[in-house]
Amino acid sequence: MRVSIVVPALNEELTIGEFVEWCKEGLSKVEGGGEIIIVDSSTDKTPEIAEAHGARVLRVPKRGLGRAYIDALPEIHGKYVIMGDCDLTYDFREIDKFCKKLDEGYEYVMGTRMKGYIEDGAMPKLHRYFGTPLTTWILNRIYGSHYSDIHCGMRAMTLDALKKIDLESQSWEYASEMVLKAAKLKLKTAEVPISFYKDREGRVSQHKRAGWFSPWLAGWINLKVMFEYAPSFFLKWPGILSVITGLMIIFLVIGGMIIPALDRFNIAWLMASLMLLTVGYSAWQLSVLADVYYGFDKYFRERFKKKLTYNRGVLSGFMLMFIGAVISISFFVFYVMNGFTLTKVHFTPLFGVMFMVLGFQTFTFTLLMRMLFKRGYSEKDEG
Description:
By secondary structure, the chain is an alpha/beta fold. The chain has helices at about 15-30, 45-50, 65-70, 95-105, 125-145, 160-165, 175-185, 205-210, 215-230, 230-255, 265-295, 300-305, 310-335, 350-375, 380, and strands at about 5-10, 35-40, 55-60, 80-85, 110-120, 155-160, 190-195. The longest helix has 29 residues, at about 350-375. The two termini are about 25 Å apart.
C-alpha cells in the first residue's frame, strides 16, 4: 500500500460521505492506491456514513486532534501519510501533488493556502492577514524554516518521518509541533499550493462550535509549543553575548588598574560584569541542556557527551572553585594582617567570588548532564 489518508472526525455527518469520495478520487490518481482512515470520536452518524463509503474507521475517545493521530499511528499501512480535515475545506482530490513531492525524495510536504487558492469567505481576514502570517513568521525566525502557512491542515510525510517526529501534543498544537520538529530534525521539506474552500452551507466549523475564544486559544497554545521546543533560541546567543560583554568589562576594569584613562571602570562596573558573566554562563548551560534533552541533533549530543566527561567537568569545576578560594583566603589574610582596615577599594574578593561561582556552576552542570545522558537517553536510544 502506497498512501494512507489519515483524518480525525468529530460529528461531520454532513460532509463525511462526500469527503471519502474525494479521497477515493484522489487515490485513483496515485499509482499503488491506498487506504482512507477516519479517526472518529463522533456522537452522530459520521462513522457509519464513512464506513458505508469505504473508509476504515478507528473509534477513539474524544481527546484532541493531536491525540487522534497518535492513536492512529499503529494502524497506518501506507508508505506515505496524508493528513487534513474531513470538512471539505481541503481538496483531497489533489493529493497527487503531495505524492509527487514525496516521490522526489522530500520527507515532509506542507500544503500552503497562501500560495494557492482561497475561496471567498473561507478564511477570516483576522486569520489570513494577521494570525497566520504572524505565527508563521515567529516559527520561521525561531527554527530557521521557510514556511508560508504553518497552520495549513493539509500536509503529507513519509511514515518514517511521522515516526521520527514522535508526536506528543494532544490538541491543536500538534500542527506546529509537526512543522517545528520537521525543521529541527532537518527533514527534507517542501510546500505545495492547495485549494481552500469555505464551509458547506449548514456546517459550523469546530472553532465556531467551541465559541469565539477558540481561535485565540488555538493560537496561544500553538505559540506555547513553539516556545517549549526552543528554549535554546532564547538562551544560547543571549547567554554568549552576556558572557562576552562581561569579559570585556572585566578586561577594562583590569586595564583601569594600569592605564589612568580607564580608571573610570570602577568596582560598580566590575560587579555588573560579574553578574553578566555568571547569568550568561547559566543561560548558555541551560541552552545546551535543552538541546541535549530534546536530542534533535544527535551528532551534537554525542559530540558533547564525549567532550564533557565526568572527570573533565568535575575537575574543571573544582579547579575554578579552588582558585576562587585561594584568592578569597589570600585577601582575608591580608585584611586581617592590616588590622581589619582597608585604605582603598580592592577588587580581589570579587574575583574570588567569581571563580567560585563559575566553578560551582560547572560542577553542577556536569552532574546534570551526566544524569541526563545516563537516565534520559539510554532507554530512548535503545528503543
